[in-house]
Structures are given as C-alpha cells and as structure tokens.
Amino acid sequence: MLLLALACADPAPRDSASSPGEDSAEDSQGSGLEVPLEGLGTISGACGELDAEEWDSAQPFFFRNAIDLDAGFVVEELSSGGAQVYEDGNLGGSSIVSEVLAFELLYRCELAELLKTEGEIVYEVEGKKTDLLADIDANTVGVSVTRAFHWPPEEDYTLEEATELLTGKLGDAAQADDNVAAEDAWSRTVLHVLAYDAQHADQVEQAWQDLGSVGSDGVLQDFIVVVTVTDGDDTEVY
Q: Which of 34, 90, 109, 139 has the most other CB atoms within 10 Å of its CB?
C-alpha cells in the first residue's frame, strides 16, 4: 500500500476522561466485561473505545490515555499475551518493553488477542515490518509501536519532532501493510505511541491534527493512533 489520499480532511480526536473500570466493553465486544481489565499499572483515559464506528470507517481515528506504572515494569503482572511478546522478543533494538506495554493496553482496554509476535509474521517482500498481529472484535489488526521521547527528557518535546515521528512511523506502517503475505494481512493498522509525559503527548496530538488538516499526502490513511502517557516508574519503557 502506497501513501494514498487522506481519508478524512479534518479528523477529530476522541479522548475519554473516564476512570478505570467505568467503561464497559459490552457494546463493542459483547462480553460484558468491564475495562480496563486488571493488570500491570493503572489505566485512565480512553479505554474500551474501539467498536463498529472505527472498524466500519475508512477515516483515521485518534485516542489518548495514560498508564501509571507505580510499581515499575513487573513481568509477573503481564497477561499471557504480553508475557509471550516479552518472551519472544523483537527483531532488534531496545523497544521490547514498549511493545509489551502496547499490547497490554490493547488487551486490557479492547480485549485484544495476540495472534503473532514480530518474528512470526510472514511477509512477501523484505522491508518494513509491524510489531504485533492482534485480533480485536474479530478484526485482524497490525500494531506498530513507537515512543515519543528525546534526551534530555526534561526538555520540551517539539512539534517538529512529533511530526517527524508520526510521518515516519505511519509511512513505515503503510509499507509493512504492502509487504505482508496474504495469510497474515491485517484489515486495520494501529499505531501505538508511548509518550514520556503529557507535554510529549500534546505535541503528538497536535501533529496528528495538523497532518489531517493539510492532507499530508494521505499519511494518516485509515490508521488508528493511540497515544499513551506513561507515568510512574517508566524507565524501562524508554
């Protein structure tokens, strides 16, 4: 898939301010389970949001939430899927903890089921790859994970950095979509951004809005962007 015309000229972000346990996945997944499910850290913000509105649309969507890792990254508190991602590792780099955390958030908020980890996904063409393959609401979803972070982290994250991050990662996701073999092809892409703090997340959200308003050669496509602010003892994430 090459970068195509923008699906939505003026995308509107959705940000739930609900408390943990307040939302229910019953409407979208029919399970009646309250989300977020129990697990590592405390989740707040948008959770249990993905349903037919997103799956049946060709427009991009944006969601924002947060997780407080008050006790740090504790492997024993991971779901079975998260533990599998951690055990399998990735194809290089130091991003495995962020990939695990991204899956945990999708599992606990959207009842995602892990289908394949990075090294298991089959491609027809060598090149850009996605990080995870998951099932959400009976939809096969390619999950790409990145981090909004720079050094030193105490300095403000710039809009230019956020724009470069989004355009680069969404472009990579589009190439991965084009490269994947038919047996593992996904119907939607989720780009999950772990943000060092609220200021970093604010810049990512502004970059997303700016890209939608100008079209930006269709970089947003029908992708779903989830930005999660990490709080607490999040050193291992970055």
A: 109
